[in-house]
Amino acid sequence: MVDKIPILKMGKFLLLSIQVDMHDQLAMDLQEDLTHQIVLHRSKGVLIDISSLDIVDSFIGRMLSHIAHVSRILDAKIIVVGMQPAVAITLVELGLSLDGIATALNVEKGMRRLEQMVEDDLSLELESGEDRDFSAEAGD
């Protein structure tokens, strides 16, 4: 049995590939590990590859959704890639929506989309002046 799912750092992004059947404890550990890594590396995006998952139960579906929402709160964009048709059907049948979670067919398309999402977000911040440095003005 697998104790942890590896989380790889790729530039400003984190990549994790779920290659094993998830059990409840593994999903909870993944959530904790991922949030820690997002904060540690100040990651701007997370790509989750679920192409190896053949089935997803309601708990795992909720955990994926929860992981995505926590990541967004920590200012990291998230994209789920490689969802098998059976997994998508199961999520719909269970009434689990992945609201606000971007998806892509594969890792390559997912990385391109994640980069675009982060660039778009940065452009909006620059336009609105959110990242302005007021420290120089504080002395005036």
UniProtKB/TrEMBL annotation:
SUPFAM superfamilies in UniProt: SpoIIaa-like
Pfam families the UniProt entry points to: STAS
Residue span(s) of domain STAS: 3-114
Superkingdom, natural source: Bacteria
Coiled-coil regions, chain positions: none
InterPro entries membership: Bact_StressResp_Reg (IPR051932), STAS_dom (IPR002645), STAS_dom_sf (IPR036513)
PANTHER family cross-referenced by the UniProt entry: RSBT ANTAGONIST PROTEIN RSBS (PTHR33745:SF1), RSBT ANTAGONIST PROTEIN RSBS-RELATED (PTHR33745)
UniProt-recorded name of the protein: RsbT antagonist protein RsbS
UniProt source species: Pseudomonas kuykendallii
